[in-house]
Amino acid sequence: MHGPAAGHGPDGEPVHEPASTDQVESGGNAEHGRTILLTPASQIRMRPVSWTWTNRIPSGALTVIPGREGIGKSLTLAWLTAQITRGVLPGRHHGTPRPVIYAATEDSWSQTIGPRLFAAGADLDMVYRVDVQHDGGFDALTLPRDCSALGREITRLGVALLAADPLLSLIHAGIDTHRDRDLRTALEPLVNMADRTGCAVVGLAHFNKSASPDALNLITGSRAFSAVARAVIAIARDDEAGDGSCVMSQAKNNLGPLDLPSLRYVVESVEIPTDEGPAYVGKLTITGESDRSVSDILGDGASDGENRAERDECADWLKSYLISQGGEAAREDVLKAARAAGFAEATLKRARTRARVTTTRAGFPSRSLWQMTVRDDRSPVGSQSAQSAHLTEAEPTGLTEPTGAPTGRFGHGPSPR
């Protein structure tokens, strides 16, 4: 088998200069300056998958985060941005803060996006608002027109994440986003640029109004949004939870495992200082793993009154059982006792949330424990150390509150909108 040929581009991309007989130019006349180039697979360098967020967000690829309105999708993106600019997200950049390009069109930078990033603990000197300057003034980033120029800036700055809030706003207005073939003309150049630069692209998307437990089927627009993406992290509000929390689950993962633990988060209002007085914005806090997935939550839409009654009965049983065990019990013991009492595992998961029972891991080898808790509804549940333990088992997280507030203005380039 031939080894990699000298002169190949980054990430194993085909070289456009024929080398010996390794690369073959097709016969026939070139049409409109286009020539077919054939590269043997043996000459394309193989490489392992690189993760911006271990096992969840691949580097050099598109990840979509869909969900309904008002559940913290934008706050999730602000949280990711903060983790990357501080170098604390488990993955390839852990320990090395990296820049983020933040493309957002629906909210004001000075009143919403900047304050959210500040509250999340982002290093604002490493977050770049993106605008396109032309003879007539400034314009928003547009795909696929600006892909090449964007890729050059990503390489120049060493950007680790392109955050798109929402992804749809980057698509040229002349492209029908409900037609698969049309949408791919914008998304495929974007993912090719991501692959060349190694930058992760994470874009937000909305759910449509359909009722389905499959998050991929709910993404508004063409199926190409989920088909072109290598990963999809769906989020949904858990109406069964007493603390108003939401859940994020891996709905698609072409490059890694799909059976990752779902994560639960809460949104709290926090006060931040500005030059014109205090402002109040939302802040996302991950509180730990969730036994309920987004698929479970979406499937609850079809639940009838009988199912809810069964859940409530199971919740009462679960609280009584844990009290009898001193307030906590191993997960496998709870499942065994629930089956003996006639409750299905799916019902038990819904009841656990209803009963405000939390999970933690303890011992060696570690095992999952279910615990009764007393919580203050006025504040988010869980601690920072608890959330860190659930993000990955392979790498440290470093998810701690910043020691100092970031400094700088809430925008770059032209005056904040």
From TrEMBL:
<feature type="region of interest" description="Disordered">
    <location>
        <begin position="1"/>
        <end position="39"/>
    </location>
</feature>
<dbReference type="InterPro" id="IPR027417">
    <property type="entry name" value="P-loop_NTPase"/>
</dbReference>
<dbReference type="Pfam" id="PF13481">
    <property type="entry name" value="AAA_25"/>
</dbReference>
<feature type="region of interest" description="Disordered">
    <location>
        <begin position="375"/>
        <end position="417"/>
    </location>
</feature>
<feature type="compositionally biased region" description="Polar residues">
    <location>
        <begin position="381"/>
        <end position="390"/>
    </location>
</feature>
<protein>
    <recommendedName>
        <fullName>AAA family ATPase</fullName>
    </recommendedName>
</protein>
